[in-house]
Design a protein that fits this description.
- There is one protein chain.
- The protein has about 375 residues and is mostly helical.
- It has a domain of about 110 residues.
- The radius of gyration is 33 Å and the shape is elongated.
- This is HEAT repeat-containing protein.
- Keywords: Signal.
- InterPro entries: ARM-type_fold (IPR016024).
- It comes from Treponema berlinense.
Length: about 375
């Protein structure tokens, strides 16, 4: 009986050894160049196993590996052999995220680091991916002149744009704002746009604490992007407009630059038909009137304000614009005539809104000393009112 058990055990060991492929034997018995060759030439299934062995071997000897080109070659070969499918990688290599982080920290070789960064995208849904985010954020925080023209830095910026967190957003925003790395400007802008979209709460917080100039630059970046939805632009614009209103209330400053920015913000809200910002647009109208009086807004710009507010159709829009028509009528009684194109914009907007609260002021236009085309416009708007 004992003899039979011994024979079976011997047969098992023999079979196990026989199933060990030539590549695996070469990896186990060979020098580091042999290990690299074995990993590179192995089939996909076998390559997975050897890739893990290669990474384990490197990390066991990381002090030697750090500046050794042969170890770098083994690292790159092993990384290329890791499964591309995220589920398979996670199942077969449960410690993949931690191992990849260690490889990035061990090597300064750019080819190795870029290969690691490529693999980070394959573990972006792992529970420990926050460790990768921390690593990437730390890398960007410590950027210096030595990082200029670095392919690794470019790749890190691109990666945080795809997989970063709230902290990544603030770091990339600072890089964009400070313009310290112009060679990476396209990558920084693209990542900032992605992170802004993914971190709307942080974007709004940032706007609320920014200067008018900073708000203008940030909104300009978002508004000029063809990849950003109108709704997201409108949500940013709504909060930016609110921030500029608060700023003006605190500073009591009116400038053409600020007025122009506010018009762009209002237009973004209107273009998206962002009805959530309709009430704010009515609140802004009082400011826009003052900006128009002080020539911070010209006729055409003020007309755009009126048209945007009317398009949003706030319940208070008709009353607000009608009240403005009452002011214009009062001045006309005194022979203080307003710009005709502005008067027509007010009258036509009231007709488009169709609110009967505008009846008295529109009717009064027909009795005052307005040009006939203004009176005709008033009659047309009267006919559009809903009763």
């Amino acid at each position: 009986m004992k003899k039979s058990i011994f024979i079976l055990a011997l047969a098992f060991i023999f079979n196990l050894y026989a199933e060990t492929s030539d590549f695996e034997k070469s990896f186990i018995k060979g020098n580091i160049q042999d290990k690299t060759r074995a990993v590179k030439e192995a089939s996909d299934e076998e390559g997975d196993r050897l890739a893990k062995k290669g990474i384990d071997f490197i990390l066991e000897n990381k002090e030697i590996a750090r500046s050794d080109r042969d170890f770098s070659a083994l690292a790159v070969a092993s990384l290329f052999k890791l499964p591309k499918d995220e589920k398979i990688l996670g199942k077969n290599f449960p410690s993949a995220t931690e191992n990849l982080i260690q490889l990035f920290e061990v090597f300064e070789d750019e080819t190795v680091r870029i290969a690691v960064l490529d693999k980070f995208e394959n573990v972006s849904n792992s529970k420990s991916f926050f460790k990768v985010q921390n690593l990437m954020n730390g890398y960007l925080e410590e950027l210096d002149s030595n990082s200029q023209n670095s392919a690794v830095t470019k790749k890190v910026i691109e990666l945080v744009g795809k997989t970063g967190n709230e902290e990544s957003f603030l770091i990339v925003y600072r890089l964009w704002k400070e313009k310290k790395y112009p060679e990476f400007s396209p990558e920084i802008q693209k990542s900032l746009l992605r992170l802004s979209y993914a971190n709307i709460t942080e974007s709004i917080k940032l706007i609320s604490s920014s200067s008018i100039e900073e708000i203008g630059e940030f909104f300009g970046l978002i508004n000029n992007s063809s990849e950003i939805s109108l709704n997201f632009k409108a949500e940013i614009a709504e909060n930016a407009l609110l921030a500029t209103i608060h700023y003006m209330e605190d500073k009591s400053e009116k400038t053409a630059a600020t007025a122009g920015l506010q018009l762009k913000l209002l237009k973004a809200i209107s273009d998206a038909n962002w009805t959530r910002g309709a009430g704010l647009s009515v609140r802004f109208f009082a400011i826009a009137k003052d900006e128009y009086k002080t020539s911070c807004l010209n006729d055409e710009q003020f007309i755009q304000v009126i048209e945007c507010i009317a398009k949003l159709s706030s319940p208070d829009a008709a009353q607000t614009i009608s009240a403005y028509l009452a002011e214009i009528n009062s001045e006309t009684e005194k022979n203080n005539f307003s710009a005709q194109n502005v008067v027509l914009a007010v009258i036509n907007s009231l007709g488009a809104l169709g609110d009967k609260t505008a009846f008295d002021n529109l009717l009064y236009v027909t009795y005052l000393n307005y040009p006939e085309d203004v009176k005709t416009a008033a009659r047309n708007s009267l006919a559009k009112l809903k009763w």
